[in-house]
Automatic annotation (TrEMBL):
GO MF term set: hydrolase activity; metal ion binding
Name of the molecule in the record: NAD(+) diphosphatase
Organism lineage string: Eukaryota, Metazoa, Ecdysozoa, Arthropoda, Crustacea
Cofactor: Mg(2+)
Domain Nudix hydrolase: 53-143
Amino acid sequence: MVSWRDAHTLSRANSVLLWNRNNAFCGKCGSPTERNAAGHLRRCSSCNMTHYPSAIPVGIVLVTDPSHQNIVLVRQPRQPPGMYSCIAGFSDVGESLEDTVHREVAEEVGIEVSSVRYVASQHWPFPGSLMAGCFAVAEKQEV
């Protein structure tokens, strides 16, 4: 079993390696980029543009009914039978974390939520995301 500390280190290393591999060329002019010693930035050899790795924001939410007696989980087709998860989805450009949670819950299960509360975040290496965990309450008791 890998410790949380080691898992974080491995997750970060995986993301930096993938980012370096996928950014060997400048997104502005197409010329090769050069990696700095730490691997956390790349500079274009032609236009001198500096490229930095970015994390894709993802909202993940545990939804409860108003009485906090029931929770809403989803099952994705790719998951094995009996496996369920919280609702999650990528943030769109210009969207707040709260907007992401409202939209994803409405899209995935068709219910409205309120009281979106941020809890904690965690780096997720697939595909280099920052998972922002939230709680939310369904507007109606029937969930």
